[in-house]
Amino acid sequence: MMTNLFSIFDPSTNLMNLPMNWISTILGLLFIPYSFWLIPNRHFIMWNFISKKLHNEFKTLLKNNYFNGSTFIFISLFFFIFFNNFLGLFPYIFTSTSHLTMSLSLSMPLWLSFMLYGWIKNTNHMFIHMIPQGTPYILMPFMVIIETISNIIRPGTLAVRLTANMIAGHLLMTLLSKTGTNMSFYMIIILIFIQIMLMILESAVAIIQSYVITILSTLYYSEVN
User: What global pTM score does this model have?
Assistant: First the structure.
């Protein structure tokens, strides 16, 4: 039963023995017409409005670490995760962010780049950050170990948070859809209503998780400066 349930997350589309499901990762770009970038329209205005809001918020979080273009990578990360989360709600579209392979591929390079930059350019600051101010001398060795472990598990927590949230909603909708065959007409109507509510909830989760992952990445970057 569990194997069949989790099989909805398995890549199943192949072409010449190559898994094609991962192409859905860039599927969001196909929904943006060429005229979108040239002719101002309501979609462009909405995109520009969201980008400016994100830019101002990331700029505030970065504070003194901000420089021209530094928020662009985080805005791009937000839209990339959002497109993958949202498109995964449509039937027969593979949700790449429900796999740790994809989530770790996003979080690990970011974390490694932040750590390398921090330890190479701001070594003293990184050592100071290992011990919070006011820590008793007897607790300093333990605080170094705790801070080191918390830094090491950061990419894993980012990846697991995104993957677990995307899997949970999909599994719940799959479980509900499998029970509809043994229900009466009125119960099916109620089940459809619950499915619609779940779709709305999952749409909100797709946005919230994109925002949370991006905000945490921004905070991790601000800590190394």
Answer: 0.79
